[in-house]
Amino acid sequence: MDLAFKKELDEVMGYLEKLPTKERVILNNWLKKLKKANDETQELKNWREVRNEYITLMNNQLRRSDIIEPFLARPELGPLRPVPKKLAYTKMKFTLCAEEESG
User: Fold this and answer.
1) Which terminus, N or C, of the chain has the lesser number of Cβ atoms within 10 Å?
2) Are 8 and 56 in contact (CB under 8 A)?
């Protein structure tokens, strides 16, 4: 597990206990999938980058207390797919807004 993933995971774990059971179950399923990702289970060469995008997106949503797709449902079976562009944009937009607030 790389440091970036572990850092985000530690933050996510702090939010999980505060969530309603249904949301907590769904996010735990996502976390299991992300933790199990490895060279043997993933088709993408950049699976670590994709995994880290998902955990960062999840963490950003939890910080805002606004869980949206893809975390409204359990993850699909099979290997990770790239984060959809519209969600990657949301992540970037939030990151930029957070930097402006702290700056």
Assistant:
1) C
2) yes
pLDDT in tens, 38-82: 888 788 788 999 999 999 999 999 999 999 999 999 999 989 899
Beta-carbon count within 10 A of 97 CB: 12
C-beta contacts of 48-51 below 8 A and 24+ residues apart: 48/2, 48/5, 50/80, 50/81, 50/82, 50/83, 51/5, 51/80
- The pair of structure tokens assigned to 16 is 């999980």
Buried b / exposed e over 61-73, threshold 16 CB at 10 Å, is bbeeeebeebbee
